[in-house]
Specification:
Distance between the termini: 57 Å
Order of helices and strands: HHHHHHEHEHEEHEEEH
Strand content: 5-15%
Number of strands: 7
Radius of gyration: 23 Å
Number of helices: 10
Oligomer: single chain
Strand order of the largest sheet: 2-4-3-1-5-6-7
Helix content: 55-70%
Shape: elongated
Amino acid sequence: MFFQFGIKDFIDILLVSMMLYYFYRLMRESRSLNVFIGIMIFIIAWLFVSQILEMRLLGSIFDKLVSVGVIALIVIFQEDIRKFLYSIGARQGMRAIRKFFLTAKEREQDKFDIKTTIMPIVMAAMNMSKGKVGALIVIERAVPLEDIISTGEQIDANINQRLIENIFFKNSPLHDGAMVVSKKRIKAAGCILPVSHDLDIPKELGLRHRAAMGISQESDAVAVVVSEETGGISVASKGEFRLRLSAEELESILTKELV
């Protein structure tokens, strides 16, 4: 009896392949690639034992492990699963659909709100760059950063240029950590970020840049860095750096990322 391969089977295989590739990327970005490989080896062994060799005893043991393992994986990777579900709604296509239903007045209000969020950050970054004052500002997007905010001092203030500069003033107790901007407000300062161990990061970039890269890899946040050594302004987004930015370039990048 020959296996009949139709268009439905092709679509089925294609969807499974896309799903596995997406999970592979997710695990790679969260540094859990070895876990993903281990899961795939276990699934292949389970299918081989139960479907091809038809070993009933070993197959039943694998079945029990799979049923318990799914719950265990949900518990272990609950944070990654939550970020994954949030990231679905953060995709460009989803944002485009939402934008389609906005009225002209709502679009203008959105642009105005983004400008009022961006401009104080840009102006503060430029002033700190001139004085070579180190700074790290994280702007939350779709993925919530409550776990990051909880590591710092709660502020919950309007976004203000003078306040930003005072937070990162060299004698300030909060200048060493990151400031988090969420829902058009400064939520916290002195926050601790995950540090990226990516070997591709240039060696001349310090810990602030590695922390900015780390948060951009683990979430969809945008991180603005002012170097204490050179005064250079950088942006980390989607696991990539844009270095040595002018005020116009910084404003353009933030506007593009946040719109």
